[in-house]
Amino acid sequence: MSSSIQLKQLAERSRSVANTVAKHDLPLIERNLEQIEKQSRKLADKVVKPGEVHERKAPYFLANIGIDGDKLTQDVKSISVLGAFEPRTILLDTDVERYLDHKHQQTITSIIKDGYTQTDNEYNALFDCCLSSEWDKTKRKVFEEFGQHITMRSTELPTSGGSVFRSQFSPSASLSSSFRASTSKPSYITSGERRISFKNESTLQLNQRHLVYFDVIVKLNNARLAKIEYGIINEFHNAARKISLDYGRKVVQCWRALASIVKESNVFDGSFKRNPLKQRQFAPAYQGPAFNTAYKSLSFDLINGAKHYLEESYREWSTAYVNSFRNEAMLGGQPSAINMARAVLRAIHRSNGGIPTTGLRMVDNIPIWGHIFILVRQGYYKEALDVAKGYESLLPRQDIHFVRYFERFITNNNKLPSQDRQKLVAEMKQWNPLTFQDKDPYKFIMYQIVAQLEELPQKPPVESFLTTSEDFMWMRLICVREIEPIVGAPNDTLSLDSLQKTVRNLGPSHFNHGGKDTIQYFRALLLTAQFERAVHYLYQTTFTEDAVHFAIALAYYGLLRIPDKGEAMALLVEVGDRMIPYLNFNTLICQYARSLAKGNAPSNAFQYLLLLYLHGDPLTEAGRYQIELCHEYIRQLIYDTEAFNELGKMKEYMPLMFIDNEGEFTETIINTLARQCVEDGKFKAARSLYELTQNFEEIISLLNKMLAEYIWISIRGVVMQPETAKELDPQEISRILKEYEHIGIRKISPNRLKDSRTLLNLVDFVESYKQQDFVRAVTIIQQIDLFPFEDDIIVIQQKASSIEAFDDQLKNCIPELLHITMRCIYAYYQQLKDNMAKGTPGLLRKYTDESATLQRKARALVTFAGYLKHSVLSSDIYHKLHELDVQMR
Known about the structure:
GO molecular function, one term: structural constituent of nuclear pore
Number of helices: 39
Keywords: Membrane, mRNA transport, Nuclear pore complex, Nucleus, Protein transport, Translocation, Transport
Organism: Gigaspora margarita
Structural class: mainly alpha
Distance between the termini: 98 Å
Number of strands: 7
Subcellular location: Nucleus envelope; Nucleus, Nuclear pore complex
Mean pLDDT: 81
Largest sheet: 3 strands, mixed
GO biological process, one term: protein import into nucleus
């Protein structure tokens, strides 16, 4: 019973809810019959009675501004809005089906709105990205045109993404399908990437530095072609020696330094007599992961090479210095290393103008600590140890263990074992700074060398004995114990990484003697193995040509890091927290080649572009990109300089370009370049390129395109520039075709030649039309047999089908040709009507027959146009043909 009562209560509550929902929100308006009649009469008075004309002020007002009010009224009345909106009805809470339908519609509307918002946001983001990218590329182009570059910091290695700029060798969309050859090889250069221009308007003549370095570049490429190791640094050194004045001497010293750093020796006329260095020998270690085992080993080798150069330079200085003070030096007749060191000390501490010997420990008027130091500074480590052992008994008690430390330093490859170093440093920290003025500075220097400390404890005065930048660099290099800072290592341990930062922090002003010798800082960067920064710095000075060739030498041995894709805007890119430098070698070489690409020097520029292939590698994506980019640069060089006669010489260097055979060279360089010339309207240049490969089929296709281009321009009435008119000369094209037909080249397709003759006849047809010789024009177009002029459906269908088989060049001209053909027929027809109106009795029948014939031809053309596909003939042209046909009836 209780259950049935509960159900009844639930039913009553449901009915009450439904009745509540069904009530109207608005109150009912109750009117009596009199009020209703009064409101009805007011509404009736506003209605226009049949036959009455309501006031028309609005149409006159709208007519003043060119709006047809009546027509707008009719358009509005024709619109049916019955299904546009649904009347709003109250949705009952108990109507589940309509509720779900309503939610479904709301969901769809929300999805559409969200999709619109997302699409709008994505479009704006893409637009901003493209705008920013285009601006970056524009800045890069400006920088390259003016030879200026900026340094860029990045957290990731930069690559060249797709650019908004159209590449010189990215075919346009309208012509790419017709003239770009298909290839199975993937393209690693995205369409639209910017390329450098080799057009050079400068009148600057090649200077001596260009010439002396260029000879070495040619020999280098020939050696690479013969797969022979080439001592490039020594050859650049010899070339720099030919440059006169103080300029040459400074550069020569840098080349000597680099040769010592990489240990390029035993070279005569570019050939190694022994221990040859191979191309890209250091690349795996130098360009591999930073601070791995191979990189550390290479870095120590580079440091040792830098020390060797500074020691060799000091030996030369010592000899010159002793010769300057022969009497004071007293070298004698046995100029051994030990005796030479004594002579140097006598000259340095001479009584008349030398450094006083106060505080120095002397034996036979020779500072014993200075004797050891001079031998070490000259690189005679074994002799220095022998001298130290000879002086061991003369050393004071507190220095009695020095010789033992020094011996372990020499025998352990100039690096004291860690335990011994800790003991030695602990002893040095016990020194009393109050007695420094009585101590020997040479002693402090030797202790600093053996302990390999960047700075001595308590900092005793030694600056007066290390006065030159070479001494500064040598002292720092010999004290380097690690390549990178090691966590947990003592703070006094000097690493190459920290030394490099020190040199950078000191900057050019510290090394360049107040700007008087700008190349000293470059040499300091070289000696600390900062090759990318060294080249970047030198490139911004007056030594631009030398910077380029230092970069070439470093790249040849693999000692230059470049971005994976060399399209970064900055010349120098510093990546990551360690600020690892990457040099844009591509930009550097292309800028230099651009300066050579003038007059008779395109071949010189080509020799430099071949060097870009040093970083090519068909086994890696970055290497394949580099190869294709180099191909692009070479094509651009030929394109800008039109040095087509150089292609034969360039072909000799195919192996350096990673091109296997002549066929690949023809397709990769010549044909691709020819297609680009076609797209840019350089038809004669394209024909010259195709003739080099005897590709007569493409030449005929090219000539057909030139004729079609001429026809299109003539029909449109475009005024041609002199250069365009010179390119599109129908008489010259006709002469070439006749020449090819005369020699009977079998490689040419008969259909191609047929198209050529058709196009030449069409040129005559268009010229007759322009001269308003309509009778001759109609005669020519009938002889060409391009369009049907008889009302035969079968013939018309055949002609329409044949249009689809035409080349694109001819097919693109069909709409305009069809239109002017109809206009010629119509003009001819009007001439006949005029003649008939003059009433010449004997010719009246002839004019009548000819008029009827022209009418049939016009109808045939309209029928023919109807059978053409919309892709060939637009509806606009069809309507124009139809209107002319109607006017002739």
